[in-house]
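Weekly sync, protein design subgroup
Attendees: M.S., D.O., the rotation student, P.L. (late)

Item 1: inverse folding check
M.S. brought a backbone from last month's batch and wanted to see whether the design step gives back something sensible before we order anything. D.O. pointed out we never logged the input encoding, so this time it goes straight into the notes. Structure tokens as presented (261 positions):
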């Protein structure tokens, strides 16, 4: 079913930063075995199909990364030590031993275009009607000997009541569809990332940035990916947060920008 209206009055926009394991030819797989690039270290298996399903259903823009997160991590700030990871799982990444000039070149070629285009679109939506930005990811079910059992994590800034309210409402809908869901799992929602970057720049009442983290135990397989995608789409279609997420008027948006709120 195609539905052009967003789920609750805000414009919806979807990003998928870690969509692809591909490495540009000129970077020669960064000197890594293909198995590393095709693992969770290289991209987020299953995330792109879910992001596409949401964007297609609501007929909204999807901004997706073209290249492996090991080329340049689109969900890290440009001054983050691991925006271009020098090591992965203790292994040297031969193609990522860059001096300052080469790092700047890498970022301007493979990081900045996505970030600038996505940020411009999100900022424009935030300033007109307000925006719900869903950033779709997947996580490995085992990390450092710890098993991560939940199916879905919803990441938000716990200091932002509108984001918390949205996550709680979405969680209720997903749990009703048989998925186990935790807020701010397996990561905190307010550490370095694209949504954190945007929160610092956009008015608090007109930007909601939520990361949806899906367990690769489910979504790395096609059947599980379809199950999670259809549950998320159905949950988003059901939500009506118009009462709890006020859409800012133009004047209110301008006022809150001026006051830095
Ligand atoms: Zn990710």
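Designed sequence read out in the meeting:
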């Amino acid at each position: 079913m195609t539905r052009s209206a967003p789920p609750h009055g805000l414009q919806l926009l979807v990003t998928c930063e870690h969509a692809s394991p591909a490495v540009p030819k000129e970077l020669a797989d960064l000197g890594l075995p293909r198995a590393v690039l095709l693992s969770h270290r290289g991209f987020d298996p299953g995330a792109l199909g879910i992001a596409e399903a949401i964007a297609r259903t609501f007929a909204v823009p999807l901004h997706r990364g073209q290249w492996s997160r090991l080329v340049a991590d689109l969900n890290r700030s440009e001054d983050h030590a691991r925006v271009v990871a020098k090591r992965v799982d203790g292994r040297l990444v031969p193609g990522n031993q860059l001096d300052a000039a080469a790092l700047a070149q890498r970022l301007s070629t493979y990081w900045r275009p996505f970030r600038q285009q996505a940020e411009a679109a999100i900022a424009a939506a935030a300033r007109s009607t307000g925006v719900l930005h869903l950033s779709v990811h997947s996580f490995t079910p085992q990390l450092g000997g710890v098993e991560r059992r939940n199916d879905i994590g919803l990441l938000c800034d716990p200091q932002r009541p509108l984001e918390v309210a949205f996550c709680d409402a979405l969680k209720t809908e997903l749990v009703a569809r048989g998925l186990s869901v935790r807020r701010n799992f397996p990561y905190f929602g307010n550490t370095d990332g694209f949504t954190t970057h945007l929160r610092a720049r956009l008015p608090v009442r007109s930007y909601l940035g939520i990361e949806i983290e899906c367990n690769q135990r489910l979504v790395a397989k096609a059947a599980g990916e379809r199950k999670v995608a259809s549950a998320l789409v159905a949950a988003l279609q059901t939500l009506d947060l118009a009462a709890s997420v006020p859409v800012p008027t133009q004047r209110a948006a301008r006022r809150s920008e001026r006051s830095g709120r």
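Discussion: The mean pLDDT is 89. The pocket of zinc ion is lined by residues 17-18, 44, 75, 137 (CB under 6 Å).
Action: P.L. to compare against the previous round before Friday.
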